[in-house]
């Protein structure tokens, strides 16, 4: 699946600045899907061309929580009861 | 009870210096091949790599799932994600991962799932560690960030809320 975006930018931008903006837009889109749980960290890393560790590093740089699901207290209790 | 660890769980718990403590909670701890590759082979010198290498064959076992491919309801999981899920499903194991997409898919497949924060709470409940806060703080200091709401829920559940 593709997402094609057209973003109006100021005229006369240098090409490296235009490419930096495109890269940032792609990263923002992928991170939004990742934060929403729509794609896994592995899928996000692959789309962004990063290794697993590099993707975790990028999350850390942006202070995106790795652990963010609500506490599964009932599951913890179920496991506690089933472990010696 | 058996636990299957995802890569982020190995890395996060190693950052909290409590990976090895899981052996005091679970009867068996497994990883699929993809986790070994991501953490040990691709993560040389990174947190979790040394710890997993030391544990593998000692108290963590690498296992390849034999189940047929699961048809994911979450389309955006990778073949590697599917390997993690298949192993947990095949072994009737608890899956330890912080990945929301995997947790969602695991729930659909009726796989019990916890994240690194719940694993730390479990360690306290089993009296393996005296408190969760120092471990969670260490994990965060080493860039395994925890959502503020989850952090507060964890302290509350552990009886350590300020």
List the helices and strands and how they pair.
The complex is a heterodimer of chains A (84) and B (162).
Chain A: H1 15-35, H2 41-48, H3 52-61, H4 73-82
Chain B: E1 2-5, H1 7-15, E2 28-31, H2 33-41, H3 49-55, E3 60-62, H4 79-91, E4 94-96, H5 100-108, E5 113-114, H6 116-125, H7 133-141, H8 148-157
Parallel strand pairs in B: 1-2, 1-4, 2-3, 4-5
Helix pairs in contact in B: 2-3
In a nutshell, what does this entry contain?
Chain A has helices at residues 15-35, 41-48, 52-61, 73-82. With 84 residues, chain A is mainly α.
Describe it:
The complex is a heterodimer of chains A (84) and B (162). Chain A starts with 14 loop residues before the first helix and ends with a helix. Chain A has one domain. Chain A is mainly alpha-helical. Chain A is elongated and about 65 Å long. Chain A is 58% helix and 0% strand. The model of chain A has no long low-confidence stretch (mean pLDDT 92). Chain A has four helices and no strands. Chain B has 162 residues and is an alpha/beta fold. Chain B has a single domain (2-119), classed as 3-Layer(aba) Sandwich (Rossmann fold). The mean pLDDT of chain B is 93. Classes of the chains: A mainly alpha (84), B alpha/beta (162). Chains A and B meet through helix 2, helix 3 and helix 4 of A and helix 1, helix 5, strand 5, helix 6 and helix 8 of B.
Low-confidence stretches of chain B: none
Mean pLDDT score of chain B, rounded? 93
Which stretches of chain A are low in confidence, meaning pLDDT under 50 for 5 or more residues running? none
Structural class of chain A: mainly alpha
Strand residue percentage of chain B: 5-15%
- As for the number of domains of chain A, it is 1
Radius of gyration from the alpha-carbon trace of chain A, in angstroms: 18 Å
- Under CATH at level 1, the class of chain B stands as Alpha Beta
The number of helical runs of chain A is 4
Number of helices of chain B: 8
What fold name goes in the CATH topology slot of chain B? Answer: Rossmann fold
**SSE succession of chain A:** HHHH
